[in-house]
Amino acid sequence: MALIIVKKSPSEKISEFLLNLALPQDKVLFVQDGVIFAACKNVKNLVKEGVELFALKEDFIARGFDEKDSEVTLVDYDGWAELIEKEEKVIS
Amino acid sequence: MKKVLFAVYTSPVGSIWINEAFRSAFGMYGEDLEPAVLFVEEAVLAVRSSCKPELIGCLPLAMTFKYIEKYQTPVYAVKEDLDKFNIKEDEIAPQWNLKIVSKDELPEFVHSFDKVVIF
């Protein structure tokens, strides 16, 4: 299916637009200010059932969060590259 | 032929993203790719005939019309966003040859493209 990359923070409407696009079996990766989503307690409720959520660890830590603050799976840059390789298409 | 969607969400006035989306879209024909453009959020304001960024010195949107017609580039807008900005059918510039997509249809619609770029 698709890898959807969310770069903007929760306060930006386009982020909500992208999360609403995600279909079951899609993966969503939060990067840049998008990693703020990973610290939101309700982040899993923002997407349909069956959508996997990831966030870029380097961006998450750089914004002062601790790894244990994340509500989603943290990946590093290598992990990001793997996600891109594995998915059929990218929406970003 | 692979299909590419350029989705634009920024206002047509004060930023270049709508013109850039079309510049990128038209460039796809040289790569044997089939482009389409989707207006969401404030970008839907572009479809009004009265929307003229050139009035404040920005790039005109009308410069895209002859290429949209020549290449038959599909241009879409989200129904709920058109409604949100109270854009009526008779206000829409016919040159866009606009096609309407509802929010419910968006996930499947967007997934039908091979590549999707958000502007």
UniProtKB/TrEMBL annotation, chain A:
Any one of the GO BP annotations: tRNA wobble position uridine thiolation
InterPro entries membership: DsrEFH-like, Sulphur_relay_TusB/DsrH
GO CC, any one term: sulfurtransferase complex
Annotated Pfam families: DsrH
Name recorded for this polypeptide: tRNA 2-thiouridine synthesizing protein B
Classification of source organism: Bacteria, Bacillati, Bacillota, Clostridia, Thermoanaerobacterales
TrEMBL record, chain B:
Pfam family, one: DsrE
Record SUPFAM superfamilies: DsrEFH-like (SSF75169)
InterPro entries: DsrEFH-like (IPR027396), Sulphur_relay_DsrE/F-like (IPR003787), Sulphur_relay_TusC/DsrF (IPR017462)
Domain of life: Bacteria
Transmembrane annotation, as ranges: none
Family, per entry: Belongs to the DsrF/TusC family.
PANTHER family: PROTEIN TUSC (PTHR38780)
Protein name: Intracellular sulfur oxidation protein
